[in-house]
Amino acid sequence: MSEVFSYESLVHAVSGAVGSVTAMTVFFPLDTARLRLQVDENRKAKSTPAILAEIVKEEGLLAPYRGWFPVICSLCCSNFVYFYCFHCLKASWLKGKQSAPSTDLIIGIAAGVVNVLVTTPLWVVNTRLKLQGSKFHNEDIHPTNYSGILDAFVQIIRDEGIAALWNGTFPSLLLVLNPAIQFMIYEGLKRQLRRGIPKELSSLEVFVIGAIAKAIATTVTYPLQTIQSILRFGQYNNTSTEKSKLLSSLRTIKCLLVNRVRKYGMLGLFKGLEAKLLQTVLTAALMFLLYEKIASCTFRVMGLSNNHYKRR
């Protein structure tokens, strides 16, 4: 029980949340480009700078930062939950022993499931707010009018029902593989660089292994991320007659994937991947760098540095 409510898990959670918020703020316009390409099917896939230039030209200079606040709120909560769960589960499971890639993967999946169930409503709202006021090239997309986070919650519950706040939950649960794979590769590379010695890695080492881990995880799971964005946006008409929600979700995912392939070929499943990789790899690398430095400084101040590194 002490591992679940430990000060160490709290330090990891706060460090992860602060690191992710700072990194996302720096690279936020890249995420805007990625989301437009995923959701607006009629927008031609161009290079990321060309997409951003087009958005600025059509919607103004601040358009790439539209929806920044709800995204940052969601990201802060999401990463706090994920890092807290990951490290308290790891401490409970290992009890001071050396971890292994399979252990990191299982713990990452468990932490991801908790994170998805708790924070999906925030991500649904932030997807809607981020795309509000955008000039879409797809005429089938209906404009929304939310005044803020709370108003978006109220309108969605009133007009679509409370279940709409968990739109895209099933692909999100499948996508817990993304951070799980990311953490498995990151922790594995970190152990390889340390070679059993409890030492602090350099900033460059942390940045590079963070980038590699995220690049692999993102490429593997990207088609599902596209489906997740479409479902969260709430503009997809689900005509499935399945009584089982699980079967209905599976059928919806299958239909969206098949329709995407029919319209644009296999590469259509990876539309916006360049922008996503650019954004997510740089963001993750910077996030891990900040997270490691903040956690390291905090533990050093607490006088727990050596023990901390031995346990990780």
Please specify the SSE layout and strand pairing.
Elements: H1 7-26, H2 28-39, H3 48-59, H4 68-94, H5 101-131, H6 149-160, H7 169-174, H8 177-194, H9 203-233, H10 245-264, H11 273-302, H12 305-311
Helix pairs in contact: 1-4, 1-11, 2-3, 2-11, 4-5, 5-6, 5-8, 8-9, 9-11
In CATH's first tier, which class applies? Answer: Mainly Alpha
* Gross geometry: globular
The portion of residues assigned to helices is: over 70%
The largest β sheet comes out as: none
Structure overview:
- It is a single chain.
- The chain is an all-alpha fold.
- It has a single domain, classed as Mitochondrial carrier fold (Alpha/alpha barrel), CATH 1.50.40.10.
- The protein is built from twelve helices and no strands.
Write a concise synopsis of the structure shown.
The protein has 312 residues and is mainly alpha-helical. The protein has twelve helices and no strands.
List its salient traits:
single chain, 312 residues, Mitochondrial carrier fold, 12 helices, MCP
